[in-house]
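Q: I'm teaching a short session on how sequence maps to structure, and I want students to see two examples side by side rather than one. Could you give me a first protein with its sequence written out and its structure tokens following it? Keep the formatting plain so it prints cleanly on a handout.
A: Of course. Example one:
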Amino acid sequence: MNAVRMATELSDRLDWLNVSGLRLERLRGRVVALGFWHAGSVVCSNLMRDLNLIQGRHSDGLTVVGIHCPKFDAERERDCVSKAVSRLQLRFPVASDPDFVAWQHYGIRGWPCTVLIDTQGRIRRQFAGDLCLAELDAAVDELLHEAGEDDSRVFETLQLASQREPRLPLSYPSGLAIDDNHVYVADSGHHRILECTHEGRVLRQFGSGNPGLLDGNSADAGFNFPCGLSLRKESLYVADRENHALRRIRLLDGDVETVHGTGKPGPAVTARGELDAGTLMNAPSDVAGTLDQLYIAMAGTHQIWEYDLNQRRMRVLAGSGRAGCQDGVGHDARFAEPTGLAQVQQTLYVADAQGSALRSVHVTDGAVHTMVGKGLFDFGDQDGTRASALLQQPQALVLDSGAPLLWIADSYNNIIKTLRLGGGDVVRHEIDYRLHRPAALAARKGSLWIANTDAHELLCLDIEAGSVRRVAVGE
């Protein structure tokens, strides 16, 4: 018989964020799920939300524990992880493990990963990746049933952990679009889209504010952490990330409809050619395009999708579905959680968050080229030539309204940078305002609009004057 491996006690070196501390020995009689994750990953966010759901289903016999092990330097900071716990509305205990102590004890090999411990403290299963909700749920149910049979189960509902941000007019804004009269804000944590004047007065709200996938009029429709926005004619397209869907708001009447997606995430698409209507999306994070074509940053499957607005056809433009920073054509290329898009004529520029890279895609043939970035674990804060510059989890891009210049939200460095097209260098743009993980940008007539995401606010930079004003949205 194989020896039973007992779970290693959690180290005293862990920094608990939303509880005073936790010992596995005190959880005997309950199944324990240890979820290893890092804050900047959309794929990890998928798993954390699933673990939230499983905790609710089995609250009388399961304890979920999140163990945060940083990939990026910024994630070693307590505040960065704490903001992610609040953003994801995690209701289970979470500890920061910046020294990878628990990671090494449990032999974890990559993010995300879940370890199941039975009621007697034995390690029973390990699940790698996300997209394992049904399998995880069944495994927990099996272990609880087994514990009931051998009388090792303790029936007790534990008080859920909780950590929430103060109630403010905006919550983690993560998408922007602008025209001459309006600025549209994806008020992501409040699950709604706001139509505002340039001074911040709210004119309309799209979405009830309750998370869900529901079409209909602006007051009843449901979004779930909407992110990227794109204005096209009389429509506003929305990358509805946690609904794993592409949505459209008809601006004439405010009605909301689902263009593609079912509310459930799916695996990477390897098929070439047109996708059927039932093909599942996974964490679409931005959308950009022309009057005829839309391009979607499919962060959860490391791909760029294309949607033909006239023919209503969806296909994969580029990306194999495997994480990486590999150039190539179409399915031969690799991305790493693309989250931001900007189109300039026949070129689509991509903020590739997990690769800390800027990529370009030629939309006619899907050819991918790396402009800035060296690999999945090469990141930092360094200006300079494209070959030498370093970013740290860039989240958004936008083309300057009056120059061949890309503005970059270098999110984990809390900096705005620029890249002049045609061979220019990466340059930091000094702003006299403290940024907190900026995750969305928009540009209009000499102004740069910034979603200062973790500070729950919208900023407007006068580029020529260099002055920044805080836009009092809804205040």
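Q: Perfect. Now a second example for contrast.
A: Example two:
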Amino acid sequence: MSRRLSVAVERFPIAGAFTIARGSRTEAVVVTATIEDGDIRGRGECVPYARYGESVESVAAAIEAQAEWLANGGARSDLFERLGPGAARNAIDCALWDFEAKRQGRPAWAIAGLSEPGPVTTAYTLSLGAPEAMEESARNAAHRPLLKVKLGGEGDPERIAAVRRGAPDARLIVDANEAWRADTIEANLAACAAAGVALIEQPLPAGEDDLLADISRRIPICADESLHDRAGLDALAKRYDAINIKLDKAGGLTEAIRLAHEARARGFEIMVGCMVGTSLAMAPAMLIAHHAAYVDLDGPLLLAQDREPALRYEGSIVHPPLAELWG
């Protein structure tokens, strides 16, 4: 076996802008790893995230550093000894899953010993903005059954009330992206309860979320920035009711499968989430999405143009990938 690794940085424009508490952007910048041997080709896509100390350049370099190891037959089971959780390991891990599926002529879910994935309903994200703008966005998306609402701190009770007015029948998830504080969390929780919110994602900064163990709440709280892989599960006890599994945080599908299994054993509900990327990044996550209580794999829906071939979206229903895309 003499596998060749190539790394590409690709840019996909976002439809409009994507805004959260930490800033706004108009394009998705992804790093793609491709592993080839003859006619067999496996691909994996990742999204570097500055919040976790990553840049496009650092992630691309970390992937390229594994070229010799991969050429010499490096196994996916040994990847954990070479790279920690994060985007670089995700790209290589998913490329190796895709490569193995193509080599064996079997779907990745079967190789992993998982059940065959089916269509799932994904959340659709509403960017952070002024209440009136978010109400308009909610009205335009009110036909979707599940909306994920980006919040940002000051003014959030007005924002969530505006979204509920715009989409009176949709199920709502809110994501504060660590923007709430001890002196605002009670008012924000009350506003979410009044709006009938189903789940609140990462309200407080990671490392400053001990308060969650002591407050009473009627709405489940989901960890995102506070959890990357299995090593962080024990620290979440009494603070969180659910976890958001993102392959870019966990460092690939291999860890995501293990994380989902151990989290369920501890009684956590599962959300399967994503960064803003293309269908190639969403495809591996589909293998665990059909067992999740919440699915947030809407990255391609936020893009002005996806890659081809792409996942098939019918409204908010996303279908498992065809082999031509991944796995």
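Q: What should students look for in example two?
A: Point them to this: The longest helix spans residues 87-104. Also worth mentioning: The longest strand covers residues 4-20.
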